[in-house]
Amino acid sequence: MPASTRLTLTTVNLDTPDPAALARFYANLLGWDVEVEETDDVILRSADGGVGLSFQRERAYVRPTWPAEAGQQQMMMHLEIGVENLSAALDHALACGATLADHQPQENVRVCLDPDGHPFCLWLIG
């Protein structure tokens, strides 16, 4: 890549059958603001800036399975969310509408599923 070319990651997109609903979940979870809201696309961004989250309508959306199972829709990615108090963060996530995944592979991490089934990890910072 030429030295004069700069690439900047600005947004991570999640497919969803209902962009507004999933955006509300993550806005509540993270305390972020809606930057753009359209029928098929909603973008959230932290007041601090940085990489945002976008929720794009996918009419053929299939809920992922986690952990992976042969023949089932696989997750394509997951979000990592650092927390200072794992128990309090988990309580908050559940109150926002997340579910705790049945399989928990690490002691200092809690794998949760958002309302559309996308996994995300709450992990203890430090």
TrEMBL record:
Membrane-crossing segments per the record: none
Q: Which SUPFAM superfamilies would you find in this protein's record?
A: Glyoxalase/Bleomycin resistance protein/Dihydroxybiphenyl dioxygenase
Q: Which ranges carry the VOC domain?
A: 8-126
Q: What is this protein called?
A: Glyoxalase
